[in-house]
Every structure is written in structure tokens, then in C-alpha cells.
Amino acid sequence: MKATFAVLCFLVAVAYALKPLTTPRPVIIDEGALNPRCVAPLDKCPGNVKIIYYYNRTSGCQQMHRGNCSDNGNYPTLQECQEYCLPAPGKQVRLA
Predict the structure, then answer these.
(1) What residue stretches are annotated with the BPTI/Kunitz inhibitor domain (predicted)?
(2) Which label site among 1, 6, 32, 55 has the fewest CB atoms less than 10 Å from its CB?
(3) 78 in helix, strand or coil?
(4) What is each CA distance from 43 to 3, 26, 37, 47, 71, in whole angstroms?
(5) Mind listing the pLDDT tens digit for each residue in 49-62?
């Protein structure tokens, strides 16, 4: 009886010791931007009339000064760009 109890205690201790090995670890992913506006090409329009934000696949949402040209779908605010576009590659994390 004592031997059975000792073996049971040993197995429980081993199970608790192995538990940290099975916890999920963060994995960096890059599934690309989901919103078509996020992959719109940077529309260069010389001038300094307004500030817009565009999504750059390597560095995320970036600020740009624009002239008074027609808009190609870039974002008026940094918050809106970040809301609709994924973080820059290498900054996206999910638990595996």
C-alpha cells in the first residue's frame, strides 16, 4: 500500500514537472494585410497640404505629407491605419 502511494506521488510530481514544457510559446506570424486598403500602393503626390498614413509591409503604418491630389484610399489618421491594417511583419504574435 505504501509503495503504491509512493508511486502515485512520484507520477503526480513528474506530471507537474512536465507541465511547463507543454505551455504555448509565442510564435511570430505574418499572414499579410487583410484589408485591400492596406496594400494600396503609396500614392506620391508632391506637396505639404495634408498628412496621411499608409501601410508599409516592412514597418507598419507610416506618415506621409501629401499635396492636394485625389485620394487613393490611404488613411487620414494613424489610429485608423492601425485599426484596419495588421502590425508590421515580425510584430504579429499568436500563441502556438
Answers:
(1) 38-85
(2) 1
(3) helix
(4) 76, 35, 12, 12, 8
(5) 888 888 887 888 89
Domain span at residue 80 reads 26-95
The number of helices, as runs of H, and strands, as runs of E, in the chain is 2, 4
- Whether 10 is in a domain gets the answer no
| Grid cell locating 94 | 499568436
| C-alpha grid cell, residue 10 | 512520484
CA distances from 6 to 11, 15, 16, 17, 26 (A): 9, 14, 15, 16, 37
Q: Could you tell me if residue 45 is inside a domain?
A: yes
pLDDT tens digit string along 66-96?
888 877 778 889 999 888 887 766 666 555 4
Position 34 in a domain: yes
Counted domains in the chain: 1
CATH number at residue 64: 4.10.410
**Angstrom distances, CA of residue 58 to CA of 18, 71, 74:** 38, 22, 17
